[in-house]
Design goal:
The protein is an alpha+beta fold and 106 residues long. The chain contains 2 helices and 4 strands, in the order E-H-E-E-H-E. Strand 2 and strand 3 form a beta hairpin. The longest helix has 34 residues, at 55-88.
């Protein structure tokens, strides 16, 4: 069951946490997949416009994925915080949240 709540502002820390979790949990598996393909010889991982294959591509891919997720988190989190701060100056934000411990059929 979802409950509607109204908030005046969302903290910047919450926004960075949401953006960071979302990006890490999507970019890291993709980077690992590309690293597995690089392990078997595909040119899916590159550094300084040079393809990394084999063990070096496999090891570099999660590092590159985490760095990209961190950079995008900083950019996305900052722009979301600024945009929602401006929005909160004019009206409150209404969110739908799922209440913990409730089942879909109950």
């Amino acid at each position: 069951m979802f409950k509607e709540i109204t908030v005046q502002r969302i903290s910047a820390g919450t926004l960075f946490k949401l953006a960071g979790l979302g990006l890490v949990l999507t970019m890291l598996p993709f980077a690992l997949l590309m690293g597995c393909l690089a392990l078997f010889g595909a040119s899916t991982v590159s550094w300084n416009q040079e393809p990394l294959t084999g063990i070096s591509g496999f090891v570099a891919s999660p590092i590159i994925g985490l760095v990209l997720a961190a950079v995008f988190t900083m950019l996305l989190g900052t722009s979301m915080a600024l945009g929602l701060w401006l929005y909160s100056r004019f009206r409150p934000l209404t969110l739908l949240v799922k209440v913990a411990g409730t089942e879909a059929g109950a």
